[in-house]
Amino acid sequence: xxxxxxxxxxxxxxxxxxxxxxxxxxxxxxxxxxxxxxxxxxxxxxxxxxxxxxxxxxxxxxxxxxxxxxxxxxxxxxxxxxxxxxxxxxxxxxxxxxxxxxxxxxxxxxxxxxxxxxxxxxxxx
Length: 125
What we know:
Elements: H1 11-62, H2 71-78, E1 88-94, E2 98-104, E3 107-111, E4 117-119
Antiparallel strand pairs: 1-2, 2-3, 3-4
């Protein structure tokens, strides 16, 4: 009788593969989550730059900054097309230090008339 060749994986082989995959995921996941957080922070900073530019144009027309912070008013009065998918945006009439904010949880970014963006301690760089 001719011996048959192995046709399936053993339980030990499957457990080892699952363990190796778990180790790889545990190494890669924190890096991926950090990248996603930094990307979302850049998105907020980019939108704040748009709000700041829109606030300057609005000020030149009306001699005041937009103070109604709703996203609908920001888009219609500043000529923008922002979406509140992750951040809550608002326009503020508190120059020179704060003409726009982006908030998510405990993280808040603000932008000044001069375009300086500052964030709270819980915000990524």
